[in-house]
Amino acid sequence: MKGYDVVIVGGGLAGLRAALEVAKQTNISLAILSKVHPLRSHSVGAQGGIAAALGNVAQDSWEDHMFDTVKGSDYLGDQDAIEVLCKEAPECIIELEHLGVLFSRTKEGKIFQRNFGGHRNPRACYAADKTGHAIMHELYAQLMKYGDNVHFYDEWYVTDLIVEDNLVKGVVACSILDGTLELFQAKAVMLATGAYGKCYTVTSNDYSSTACLPLEDMEFVQIHPTGIYPVGLLVSEAARGEGGYLLNDKGERFMKDYAPEMMELAPRDIETRAIFSEIKAGRGIKKGNYVNLDLTHIDAQRLKERLPFILEESKRHLNIDATKEPIPIAPTAHYCMGGIPTDVEGQVYADTKNKVQGLYAAGECACVSVHGANRLGCNSLLDCLVFGKKAGIAMASIAKSIDFASIKNNPLEQIKKSIENMKMRQGTYGIASLRKELQETMSEHCFIVRDKKGMLQGLKKIAELKKKYDAINIDDKGNVFNTNLIEAFELKSLLTVSECIVRSALHREESRGAHYRSDFPKRDDQTWFKHTFIRKVHDEFTFDYKPVSITRYQPEVRKY
Amino acid sequence: MVSMKKVSRSKKIDQKKGQKTTSKNIKGLQKSEVSEKNVKEPSQEITFRIQRVIQGKTEMRDYKIEVGRGDTILDCLDKIRDDLDPSLSFRRNCRNTICGSCAMTINGRARLACKEHALNLIDKETTKENTKENAKEKIITITPMRNMPVVKDLVNDMTSFWNQYKKIKPWVDTGDKPLPEKEFLMSIEQFQELEQSADCIMCGLCYADSNGVEAEKEFLGPAALARAYRLIADPRDAKQEERIKAVDNKHGTWDCMHCFYCTEVCPVDVDPLAQILKIRKMAVEKGSTKTRGAMHHLTFIKSVKDSGILNENKLPIGSIGGIFNIVGMFEITPVGFRMLTHGKMPSLIHHKIPKIEDVREIFNHFKKESFKKKDDSPVNYQ
Question: What is residue B24's predicted lDDT score, i.e. its pLDDT?
């Protein structure tokens, strides 16, 4: 058994930001457990930017940022949390800059800011189109400063979280490198695991995105409008921020019919549904399942400076010179607004009212909720930073004020047995084929447009898949870098999470943000202006509700 | 210093086989691929010869799969693992050349699996004058990276790589500089100067194929040195001098032997060699002329300036600071002796080339150019 005052699960942006806050304090032992090396985390893939009302390029204010975020969330975002997010954003960016993050600059030498979907002012601070990479590499480097006081466990897979009497006591993790199973006792634990985009066939997410307490607003999964067709890898919204057009087969900027004012820079749920409608109406390019993202009218030099990664990406995947030809794009699963419910300090809720002592969450796996029913571009990195930092501060103070609690039931032996059992499985189904079936099910029955009939079918298929899971086959029986085994665990989580998404989506009989029901196409504030909490107890799912916090802006009709 | 950005090598050594094979510049080939864009063509059957570690034994195994145009090596590895052998282990994550996970040796060169298209690779190898047998038979060989121990199959233990990164104190350190209320001001030019080295994704490809690392395990390696330059050139950093000093030594920049592989294999055009050369230049300009590397450098220059060609006999003696360096002389004498006995000793008589003034004119030209560059440099925003 190992003991650390603070254990952070996940080495992405939220995890590292929290770690920095803990590391700054002396005499606190800290471990960061991540199933990949931290610099391989998907945060490095964030392209477009990070929002903050610095006002470096045009007049801006945190209140404007807040209003845009509230409206973008289709009014489901909690306004107390959004206020924190937007007020603290400028300070967070300046901190990053002082830590060495390289931001693109204005002529005056200030941090440049560009336009982004749903934001009325140029607010996205960026580093070309590799913003996540730029931030992650500097944060990680800063943590090196603390030497052995910050203990990284790279390539450790966390199998269990130990919570007894509503108090977190540690985690159990397995080393991917050699199969060692270890119990990490802790005074405070943070979950910063990222999310679960791998439930879908076409996704802009990486492979590591899988995560499971009650879960909040799981029905809201953001489908990004512009994934490279057909692979689904992301073309950042920055492409439209820099002036890119969306064109249908007739060469029309079809967004004029859906968001006449903001056009290509309306929030993502609106853009995605517009593309979906165009394709459905037979106006996809050559009547196919994609439309074009056109950058050719923008000065090539400017594209090279501001969107080098997008140019390289389209060349690599499609042999396209995006300065001369349009990029074929189609919507791709991208971000999960829902997740582990937390308060504004990052502490995790045990139910709609009570919290778990010592347990924190931030980033995409968490739901504060600042994104509500639809996240605005550039607000996710900010979410990681603001709430990651808060969680870090809270955990550091816990570490100093309490002692380790003894663990009553050590689950290590039981977990060891279940891993050995799993390894010995000799069934008929391979992990990959089951995962593919699950992704196809989710993409068919719970994607951009949903209805009751489809989702019921989806649930039936998931139930079948769960049965099949009992008869999986594990080929790799070894202990060293057994990805076969890890993927089996991940698939189990994906099945649970997918079921939560479908059940929550089926439950919410209205359309709001990214959740669009063709059988209930209107927003229904009377009944559904509330957060849903779904909880799995044994094999039963139960629902609970939490009211939305309103501090400044009453729900209005959402037009762009 | 000469820009090393577009490096072209006419000959490279296939380290695995120890044979010399001719190959074209990778960048040049990529250009010709672009022109045949989006060709719809039937898929081809390709054999992947993959290094496996099965029950502690290392062996090569063949996997045959159908590959389409546009399938990356990573797509193929996924297919092999999903459909043929789930026990195959490799690292991978973003699929988009930004996370650096899927670094491995593909057809003898360190590459990212998500960046290389399988059929393009077959085409590239078959278009060479000396067609490789493997390419004709449509075989792609995949082994783990070199210069680092293997954990399993295609997974390397990268501890040594990360240790070298830690050694250079990889964080921006503003030291005692007062922090401004808002951001530090930085010019667009300063940003652009840093951008290239900061683009590094720490995939380890440069470290894996570096001849310098192969020869000397203590060598910091290209990635760590590129990171060092990124910090040295950062106007916010307060430790420029200390940083230069820390890498201006034997296992720092001077262990680099200009094999150019780092620059050739880098998937994101960091051009580590260029960054290493920039640090060396800064070190010498700051008056560091006493390291062996710098003395080697300066003796080289002086010799060419004086006589138009290199005096190979003076170079080793100049590199240790002259014949009065007794310890140094003891170190190089055995090498000299071996050269003599193996018939490799250069002629003791060194002639000046005719028209030596032309060579000096080149020196003068570059001296002027470098001064001009300094005049154009942007205002210091700090």
Answer: 32
